[in-house]
Design brief:
Elements: E1 2-3, E2 9-10, E3 17-24, E4 34-43, E5 46-54, H1 63-69, H2 73-76, H3 82-93, E6 98-100, H4 107-119, E7 122-123, E8 127-129, H5 130-137, H6 146-153, H7 163-180, H8 184-187, E9 200-205, E10 208-213, E11 222-224
Parallel strand pairs: 2-8, 3-6, 6-8
Antiparallel strand pairs: 1-7, 3-4, 4-5, 9-10, 10-11
Helix pairs in contact: 5-7, 6-7
């Protein structure tokens, strides 16, 4: 859903949402381009619809990117450019909340950048980053990559690093994290920012540890530990 302002980051579970994922030519949202965008629509905790398309980035895909996502130049030569793919994605998601893994610092940056370039607008959909939830619900894990969470929950990882497969895995992870958020053990360790409603995280500063809002730099609320 396009609008004049970007959607808010939420730190909670909800039963209706769209999980999405991108594959790109690299990790920089400043210079790299999208080569695949996929999404699954979930209502009442059940997948009801899928969206997926390769994207012609109008540039050569670096070999290092292809090694990870197995998308090569010949696969995207007849694919739509991202302006068309992103418009179709916008129609698919409507006003639903978006969910994804590490989307706060990666995927959202790409789609917000290009929505501004193409239409002078922003995606106004609120969104949930499962990386944030996983760090709070599973502090015992040393890493919180999607593949780590999939392994932790015993979810099949077939097709990992292709966008639609990653959406399917992340949807299952999000449902498990939603259950974890209800547990007393997790609840007692959660601290919510009174200013914006996002999760607070322990940080270390010049004068020791403090609670900082997980929405930083958008929200700069802090509390003493």
């Amino acid at each position: 859903m396009l609008g004049d302002t970007q959607g808010r980051k939420l730190d909670k579970y909800m039963p209706d949402y769209v999980v999405f994922d991108l594959e790109t030519t690299g990790i920089s949202y400043m210079t790299d381009r999208v080569i695949e965008i996929s999404a699954v629509k979930v209502k009442g905790k059940k997948v009801v619809e899928e969206f997926s398309t390769l994207v012609n980035p109008e540039m050569k895909i670096p070999f290092r990117a292809s090694q990870v996502n197995h998308i090569y130049d010949d696969m995207v030569k007849d694919a739509p450019v991202f302006e068309k793919a992103l418009a179709d994605f916008d129609a698919f998601i409507g006003d639903m909340v978006l969910v994804g893994h590490n989307i706060h610092t990666f995927d959202m940056k790409f789609i917000q950048r290009d929505a501004k370039v193409y239409w002078g607008k922003a995606f106004a959909n609120d969104y949930i980053d499962t990386l944030t939830l996983a760090r709070q619900c599973l502090p015992e894990l040393s890493n919180h990559k999607l593949t780590d969470l999939v392994a932790h929950y015993g979810i099949a990882a077939d097709g990992a690093h292709r966008a639609l497969a990653d959406c399917g895995m992340n949807q299952k992870v999000f449902e498990r994290l939603g259950e974890a958020l209800k547990s007393p053990a997790v609840k007692k360790n959660l601290k919510i920012c009174p200013r914006c409603g996002q999760m607070m995280v322990r940080r270390k500063g010049k004068f020791g540890q403090f609670w900082g809002c997980g929405g930083y730099p958008g929200c700069r609320y802090t509390e003493n530990v």
